[in-house]
Amino acid sequence: MISKVQIKYIRSLHQKKYREAEGKFIAEGEKVVRELLQSNISIKQVYATQDWSIPAGISAEMISEEELNQISLLQSPNKVLAIAETPQFILEKSSLPYELYLDDIKDLGNLGTMIRTAEWFGLKRIFCSIESAEFFNPKTVQASMGSVFRVKLHRLLFDQCMEFIEPKAIYAASLAGQPLSNAAILPNSLLVIGSESHGIQAHILNQASHLIKIPNYGAAESLNAGIACGILLNEFSKSLMPQS
User: Fold this and answer.
1) Residues in CB range of 82: below 8 A, 6 or more apart
2) Which residues, other chains included, contact 193 with Cβ-Cβ below 8 Å and sequence gap of 6+?
3) What's CA 47's distance to the chain center, in Å?
4) Cross-strand bridge partners of residue 199
């Protein structure tokens, strides 16, 4: 049986202030936990019900479904929950076809989806504004479906990012921009995507060399930020990434 002290500790990690203080985060569900186990992230504890197939070489504390319900953040808890150490990524200089900067993405699900999408299109790291949502919030972790364990995530002011990567061109997604199909996508560039509700901050837009938009053919007012991210990354990766 899991102790009351353990339950209290795990439930404290439901809150951001305790995750930050402890340097720990929660991953839940068969798919997400298996992705975590295959990563380089340090895992502190795994709690599982009897019907979870424990991978070879993994130690897990067996608990009941009722106990899992007590420590889970999911509406329908799924067999396994893990506590892991929040990774700290070292910022290194590297020559990449293009980089991604996410500005003020507050929605946890959107952020997780964008991390997952970025990995699909070949990005190994992402820069985010200081105001963007928490990388290892359980909802972000869940939405990323494991990509958050592999993509290096850096939280920086935009000007700090510029000092580090020095892009040859900056493309900012904006409704005031030219259609994406008309833009020449240059190598060693930076793509900036803002939130659906507020867009990109003015001081960042002022530094952009290209304003681009996804043309619309219907009456919808806007695109979900995660979907817009996927469309833009598809075009950039198609133009700049090595084709397999």
Assistant:
1) 26, 27, 28, 33, 36, 37, 43, 45, 46, 47
2) 100, 101, 102, 103, 105, 114, 173, 200, 225, 228, 229, 232
3) 24
4) 195
Contact at 8 Å (CB) between 136 and 16? no
Give the residue from 205, 199, 193 showing the smallest Cα distance to 113: 193
Largest CA distance in the chain: 62
* CA neighbor of 26 nearest in space, from 154, 153, 139: 139
Q: Answer whether 0.90 is exceeded by the pTM.
A: yes
List the one residue out of 112, 127, 140 whose CA is nearest residue 26. 140
Residue 230 · residue 223 · CB < 8 Å: no
β-pair type (24-28, 80-85): antiparallel
> Which residue, among 136, 143, 147, has the nearest Cα to 109 in the 3D structure?
143
Report the alpha-carbon distance of residue 49 to residue 68 in Å, rounded. 8
* The CA-based dihedral angle spanning residues 139, 144, 149, 152, taken in that order and rounded to the nearest 10 degrees: -110
The C-alpha atoms of residue 126 and residue 142 are separated, in whole angstroms, by 18
Question: Over the stretch 121-143, which tens digit does the pLDDT of each residue have?
Answer: 999 999 999 999 999 999 999 99
pLDDT band at residue 244 using 50, 70 and 90 as cut-offs: low
